[in-house]
Design goal:
- There is one protein chain.
- The protein is an alpha/beta fold.
- A six-stranded mixed sheet has the order 4-5-8-7-9-12. A two-stranded antiparallel sheet has the order 1-2.
């Protein structure tokens, strides 16, 4: 495993691996604040992850589109196709999701051959991305959602996703996940609800409960 990565595997799902990056690994997004050569080096290093021989990404726009069976990405070029989800059944192709405080979510079928990766910011959560994407993913590959596993990576915790204009930005439908005292949305619980509603079994919905705000020394 690469230095600065947090490894994760689903129980009993052979052939599917996951890694969540930290500041120790460094940014994989092309950003004026980081040298391009350093970013390219890190992106090329992703193919050193166990089982990966190439990766694919998208230009994330806080929407709900999922790209199916994407082509391998050139590490030296920025993605042009806009989407906030990637899915594949191609062995050895890693799906790269870029987040800071947003939720990175990986779903895998128990057969170990189908995966779906999501970038769920608050706009994606409000648009029911997790629910819609699971339904589309299962229809595309003829899968039963009860046979999926899901993991949510480090992101804003239940008391850190502050929304001082809740009525305008969310609305009454999301009151069950709003913590009025902290003026914060529990996005972790909302994602769990969306995945459960999509048919993923609750005991198969896992999470790395690491808040990127509280742990800002480790996470972007």
């Amino acid at each position: 495993m690469l230095h600065g990565m947090i490894p994760f595997t689903f129980p009993g799902v052979a052939g599917v691996r996951c890694a969540f990056g930290t500041r120790l690994f460094g940014s994989i997004a092309f950003d004026p604040g980081d040298g391009r050569a350093h970013v390219e080096h890190r992106r090329r290093a992703l193919t050193d992850l166990p089982g990966a021989c190439a990766f694919a990404e998208a230009r994330q726009v806080h929407g709900t589109r999922v790209i199916y069976d994407p082509q391998p990405q050139d590490p030296s070029r920025e993605a042009e196709d806009e989407a906030d989800g990637l899915a594949t059944a191609r062995p050895g192709l890693a799906l790269m999701i870029k987040t800071a405080d947003c939720q990175p979510i990986l779903l895998a079928h128990e057969d170990g051959r189908h995966i779906l990766a999501l970038h769920s910011g608050w706009r994606g959560s409000r648009a029911d991305l997790a629910f819609a994407a699971v339904g589309e993913f299962c229809a595309r590959y003829a899968l039963d959602p009860s046979c999926l596993w899901a993991v949510r990576g480090p992101s804003l915790g239940p008391t850190a996703a502050e929304f001082i204009h809740f009525d305008r930005e969310w609305g009454d439908a999301f009151l069950p996940w709003y913590r009025a005292r902290e003026r914060s949305m529990d996005l972790w619980a909302l994602t769990r609800s969306q995945l459960t509603r999509a048919g993923v079994r609750p005991e198969r919905i896992l999470g790395l409960d690491l808040c990127t705000f509280e742990g800002h020394e480790l996470f972007f």
